[in-house]
């Protein structure tokens, strides 16, 4: 596709400068078309300019919450959003729009990189991809309920279809998930492999992050499957799992620190 056009909506100068710097570093080919500070300014810009591909949006602005923007302007379904805020209570409303991710301040570079990768994977799947529409309705309702209760419920099992029947697969029995040729597979600790009707992006949002980690664009690993972690060139990491896989699992330099923190919890 053409150059990704992005706007930043953030009313604190140091935060907008930080985000601008991160975007320039992580995606120098992207074009930041505007840095806006308020609901009023954002609505005016959106009404008079071509819809951006992506918005980095603070939730609490100087003249109200960013959700007021949607009350005054109907955002293009092709425009996706990464919400940024220090207030977790707004999570429930963030899920009601085209949200790619929801990042709590202070924003870490590795987390923003993860969000960018999710955004790019959506574009790779379908130019008209809408992450809100793609969610299972039943799970979406469950997600809303869990947020309202102050906790999140994670997926504990899958229903796997076979040639003649279905069988249950427990999440805890899965050593790792991987994607190949636009298909997603789950590999269990007993070395069985199953085709899943989910993307890694969907799985990442539904699995317990204490147990599962998105190592890179192709793999999600179970903590109990990690056998060995070694340093590689460029400050990357190589992860060995049990059972062994026939491809190398690498963790990028940007995610290496976060991965080691996850391993050390």
Would you give an account of this structure?
With 265 residues, the chain is α/β, with parallel strands linked by helices. Helices cover 32% and strands 31% of the residues. It contains nine helices and 17 strands. The chain has helices at 13-26, 39-48, 67-72, 91-94, 109-125, 131-134, 137-148, 200-206, 253-263; strands spanning 5-9, 31-36, 54-58, 60-61, 64-65, 80-85, 99-104, 157-161, 166-170, 174-180, 183-188, 193-196, 212-214, 219-222, 226-232, 236-241, 249-251. It has a five-stranded parallel sheet with strand order 2-1-3-6-7, with helices on both faces. The protein is globular, with a radius of gyration of 19 Å. It starts with a strand and ends with a helix. Residues 127-141 and 143-148 have low confidence and may be disordered.
| Average pLDDT figure | 82
Tally of helical segments: 9
Shape: globular
Radius of gyration in whole Å, from Cα? 19 Å
In terms of DSSP E residues, the strand content is: 25-35%
Which structural class should the secondary elements be placed in? Answer: alpha/beta
Task: Quickly describe the structure.
The protein has 265 residues and is an alpha/beta fold. It has helices spanning 13-26, 39-48, 67-72, 91-94, 109-125, 131-134, 137-148, 200-206, 253-263; strands spanning 5-9, 31-36, 54-58, 60-61, 64-65, 80-85, 99-104, 157-161, 166-170, 174-180, 183-188, 193-196, 212-214, 219-222, 226-232, 236-241, 249-251. The model is unreliable at 127-141 and 143-148 (pLDDT under 50).
């Amino acid at each position: 596709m053409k150059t990704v056009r992005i706007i930043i909506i953030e009313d604190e100068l140091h935060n907008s400068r930080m985000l601008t710097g991160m975007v320039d570093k992580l995606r120098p080919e992207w074009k930041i078309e505007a840095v806006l500070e308020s609901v009023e300014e954002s609505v005016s810009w959106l009404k008079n300019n071509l819809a951006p591909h992506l918005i980095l949006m603070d939730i609490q602005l100087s003249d109200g919450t960013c959700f007021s923007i949607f009350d005054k302007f109907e955002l293009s379904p092709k425009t996706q959003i990464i919400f940024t805020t220090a207030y977790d209570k707004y999570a429930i409303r963030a899920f009601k729009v085209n949200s790619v991710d929801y990042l709590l301040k202070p924003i870490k570079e590795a987390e923003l990189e993860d969000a960018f990768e999710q955004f790019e994977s959506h574009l790779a799947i379908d130019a008209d991809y809408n992450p809100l529409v793609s969610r299972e309705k039943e799970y979406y309702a469950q997600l809303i309920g869990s947020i309202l209760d102050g906790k999140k419920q994670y997926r504990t099992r899958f229903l796997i279809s076979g040639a003649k029947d279905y069988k249950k697969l427990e999440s805890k029995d899965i050593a790792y998930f991987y994607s190949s040729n636009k298909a997603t597979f789950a590999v269990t600790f007993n070395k069985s492999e199953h085709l899943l009707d989910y993307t890694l992006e969907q799985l990442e949002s539904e699995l317990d992050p204490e147990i599962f980690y998105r190592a890179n664009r192709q793999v999600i690993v179970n903590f109990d499957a990690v056998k060995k972690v070694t340093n590689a060139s460029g400050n990357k990491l190589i992860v060995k799992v049990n059972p062994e896989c026939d491809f190398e699992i690498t963790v990028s330099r940007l995610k290496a620190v976060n991965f080691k923190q996850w391993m050390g919890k």
